[in-house]
Automatic annotation (TrEMBL):
Organism the protein comes from: Kitasatospora putterlickiae
PANTHER family: ACETYLTRANSFERASE, RIBOSOMAL-PROTEIN-SERINE ACETYLTRANSFERASE
PROSITE patterns hit by this protein: GNAT (PS51186)
Listed name of the protein: GNAT family N-acetyltransferase
Domain N-acetyltransferase: 39-197
Positions of the UniProt region annotated as Disordered: 1-24
Composition bias type Pro residues, residue spans: 1-18
InterPro entries the UniProt entry points to: Acyl_CoA_acyltransferase (IPR016181), GNAT_dom (IPR000182), Ribosomal_N-acetyltransferase (IPR051908)
Gene3D superfamilies cross-referenced by the UniProt entry: 3.40.630.30
Listed Pfam families: Acetyltransf_3
Length: 204
């Protein structure tokens, strides 16, 4: 899965911008990543390294606070440029705490955005990742010029694949991929959800 806490390869700017605040059901909030959140993000990543390391190359080492601040600044610039849109996931009941990250990345070509995400180990298997990914998918497909959203994950990363399946993404293909994290198999699933065309118009 792509690293939503690290800068993505630059892509073409996306027309328009998604909302900076998303409120999925279930008492969770997705908020545009901002410099003030860097300490909470750093704490969340460091607390979840064992959980993230099998699937995310950037989780091989604990990030320093300065490194997280640097990546946060890069994420702010990418949002402003329209190439990446990164949200931090929080709980309404615990303001200021970060429990995950969700990103929309414009590196897969025109008319499409790729979702990357992670949720803390203690908040897994509660439907939180699915609810957040649904909200981010809907925001992406509402953007002008965006017709397709993709989720890329290793076949062994069954939790990520389950999120895509529950949201109605279609498994389009499985391709070879470089092994960059210890849990990866050298294969990558590409899941796709496309914007639904408008329904038929009835003229009376």
């Amino acid at each position: 899965m792509p690293p939503p806490s690290a800068p993505a390869a630059p892509g073409a700017p996306t027309p328009g911008r998604p909302p900076e605040l998303l409120r999925p059901a279930g008492g969770i909030t997705l908020r545009r990543r901002a410099p003030a959140q860097a300490p909470a993000l750093n704490a969340a990543v460091r607390a979840n390294l064992d959980h993230l390391r099998p699937w995310l190359e950037w989780a091989a080492e604990a990030p320093t606070p300065d490194r997280t601040a640097e990546l946060t600044a890069a994420g702010v610039a990418a949002w402003d440029a329209g190439t990446d849109f990164i949200y931090l996931l929080g709980l309404d009941a615990e303001p200021g705490r970060v429990i995950g990250s969700f990103g929309l990345h414009g590196r897969i070509g025109p008319g499409a955005l790729e979702i990357g995400y992670w949720v803390s180990a203690e908040h897994g298997r509660r439907g939180i990742a699915t609810a957040a990914a649904r909200s981010v998918t809907e925001a992406a497909l509402a953007l002008p010029g965006i017709h397709r959203v993709e989720i890329h994950c290793d076949p062994a990363n069954t939790a990520s694949g389950a999120v895509a399946r529950r949201l109605g993404f279609r498994l389009d293909r499985v391709v070879d991929a470089p092994v960059r994290a210890p849990g990866e198999t050298g294969r990558k699933q590409v899941w796709i959800q496309e914007r639904r065309p408008p329904g038929p118009c009835t003229v009376w």
